[in-house]
Each structure stands twice: as structure tokens, then as C-alpha cells.
Amino acid sequence: MGRVGLGVAVGCAVVTCAIAAALVGRRARSWWRWARVVGVVGQFEEDCATPVWKLRQVVDAMVVEMHAGLASDGGSKLKMLLTFVDTLPDGDEDGVYYALDLRGTSCRVLKVQLGGSGPKIINHKVEQQQIPEELVSSTSEVLFDFIALTLKEFIEREENGQVPGSKKELGFTFSFPIRQLSVSSGVLIKWTKGFTIEDVVGKDVSQCLEEAMSKNGLHMQVAALVNDPVGTLAVGHYDDADTVAAVIIGDGTNACYIERSDAIIKYQGLLTDSGFMIVNMEWGNFWSSHLPRTSYDIALDDESPNRNDQGYEKMISGMYLGEIVRRVLHRIAEVSEIFGDSAHHLSVPFILRTPLMAAMHEDDSPDLREVGRILEESLQTSGLSLKTKMIVVRVCDIVTRRAARLAAAGIIGILKKIGRDGSGGVASGRTKGKPRRTVVAIERGLYTNYSMFRVYMNEAITDILGEEIAQNVVLRISEDGAGIGAALLAAAYSSKR
Q1: What is the enzyme's class at the highest EC level (predicted)?
Q2: H or E element: which one contains 284?
Q3: Of these residues, 228, 239, 251, 480, which one is catalytic?
Q4: Which residue in the list 56, 101, 103, 108 is annotated as catalytic?
């Protein structure tokens, strides 16, 4: 071989070695990049773990906090508020009743026709009206005039242009924190959900509504003032007498249940004809050291306007699940390059809403096409690998599974408090050796519309209780429960007047 040939050979060898080194280096960098990604996801999954023994600790913590909240005001993170609802509809109610459901920035008006002679809703109609943005920061008079006029126009359409001549009973679902004064009245404690109408705080919201209705020629009075879970429990009990509790799991979360009057220690001497009263737990504020809190939860809470409040809600409700996923994905983007140039979009708080998270989680296409579409539209990503999309789905699964299992533990906590968890003896949900059937009414989107959330929640019920007891616990979806329940309670209480 000549010198030229030798030089070419050596040059080729050098080039080959350089290419091989580059490939090895690229593979090494890729391996380390994915190792960091897997490390972040693995640590997050470990921190979110909800084994059965931990869920049972959460159950017991919920029971302890319920007892403390019933013993004294301020004794627990759970407010355990009286609703003064000590009568539930039983099917004898008859006639036409109207209801208002003020939930966030929408107002729903309902007409419910009851047939009597056993549980029977002959017909019901619902219309929804968005509250104009400028009204959420207006005045009491402006807001309640708008609500009263919305109700009046609905009734006129339903009654062929007429409004009731004699005073009729109205059910009013008011989804904001109130201090109940009676079954039909309550004082607003504070606004949430973006409302800032200061001249309503401290006022009886039923009186505000009745004054507005009277001013606008509508002769109605509030017979029942309730919040979402109480209305949902009322319609659940109307349909099935074994219903003992109701849970709302949507953007926010809350629960109520039927409690013995003599168990409400902070109101000693409280007497009811029925011997029970519905208690509004305000369970979104539940907290326990047994809850599997991560660094992402802590950061979310620190940056929220209600720091150190609603800790349970921030782990299980739709307002926050998508945001937790975003924070984990943002951390992944910080330690790797798998999201490319669009990673900076992940630094925007609440850019990933829970409905989008749920859609990605439930994408069953082979190439995870829906995941790619959502990330492209939300984060301006493109060309993501299948492996990256699988990581996103995995994070969604971890967040959803933890939320659903913790929500299930909360429900079992309620059942254990009232002796319906089947842990032994007649007082704990067994009758003559057989587990007692128990129904919990559930409303709002996370459970009703998110199938994986529902699967994980039902799975956790079985894990905690065991199959024999769990098959007697029914989680029943309630449609329009809050509004229809208010109308049913108006009917039940109008018959007592």
C-alpha cells in the first residue's frame, strides 16, 4: 500500500471512529436524558402512592376530624355545619315546584312536577343562564334582580305568560359558604368562584332574593336554602331510601351526610322530630398528615390565593388535577429536552385544564394521537415521540389514581362515622349478620364523565372494605341533583308549614 493509500485508510478510520464516538455520545446523552425523566416520574409515583394501609389511615383521620368538628366550632379543619334539614322528601310530595341553582357564574332555573303516592318525578325542566361578567363585582341589588328576572321569565314561559297569583314555595341552591340560620335562611360568610360583591357578605341571601322577587312582581318565598351536596342527598334519598350521604366532585368538592341529632355535641339540646339532621361537612378543607403530599402539591398550595386552606380539595378536585400534571411535566422539561422548544409553555400556571388531562389519559389510540393533538394545541408542541406521549399519559394516570382513591377513602370515612362501613356488629352496617345496603349520591363531572377516575374510585372502595362489604355500597350518579333536590325540599317543607 502506498503512502496515499495509507493516508486515505487512516483518514477513513479516523472519520469512522469520530462517527462512532458521536453516535455513542448521542446514545449516552439520550440514555441519561430518559434516565432523568424516569427518575422524576418514578419519584412522583412513589410519593403519590396510596396503598390500602395508607387509605385506611386517611379513613380513620376523616372520622377523627368529623368527631372534632361536631364537638366544637373551630375544633377541626372540617366545619361540620348544621343545615337545619331534618326532613327528607319521601314520595308523598305533590304539585309543581320551582328551584334556583346558583353555581359559580351560571344560574340554573328548574321546574319539577311531583306526582305523589310514592317517589315519582313526573317531569322536570332545566334552563341555564350565564351570569354576565360585570355582575360578579356589582351590587347585591343588581345581582339578585338579575336572578329574580331570570326566574320570572322562565316561569312566564312555563305558565303561558302568567306568574303565580298566590305565594309559592321555592327551593334555592346557593353554592357559596353560608352560615345557616334555618332551613330557609342563611348568611353569606364569603364569596368564592370569582364573586366580589361585598355588600352581600353578612346578609341573609334568602331575604336578598325574596326582596328582588317581590320588587319584580314574583310572589314566591324560599322554603329551602341548601348547598350542592344537600340538594343531591335529597334527590338521592327520594329515589332510594338507603341513600345516607352525597358527594360533589367537580371543579370543587364537598360532602354531606345524615347524622343523629344527639351526635352533634356542639349544639347540645338540639331536637328534631326525625332524630337526624343533614350535616354539611365542607370536606374540601380536610387535612391529615397521612395524605400523600408531594413537592408539587406544596408548591401549588404556596402559590394559591388560599394557602393552607382546602388541602384535600387541592388533591382530588377538577380545579387542580390538570395543574398538578402541568407542574410535573414542567419539572420533566427542566431535566430533559423531550418537549423541545415548546417547553417554556409548561411554565404557565393552569394552562393544562383537567378536562384536557382526562382526554389524554383516556386516549386509547395506538399512536396516542389525541395526546399529541392536545399538547400541540395547548403547548404548541409538534413531532413528539410516542415515548414522550406515553410519559404524559403515565403522569395523568398517577394524579388521577391518587385523587380517586383519596376521594374513596373520604367516603368510607363518612360511612365509618355513621356505622355503615360493615366493620362488625349491628351498629356498623350489618343487620342480622348481613351487610346493610348503603347508597352514596354523587354529582359533577369527575365521577360522572371521567371513566378512569370512576374505575379507580370503585376499585379503592373494594380495596378498603373488602368485596363482601363493598358490593353493598352503591355510588349512584345524580343528574341535576342539586337543583331538583332543592325543589324536593321546598315541597317537603311546604307541607310542614
Answers
A1: transferase
A2: none
A3: 228
A4: 108
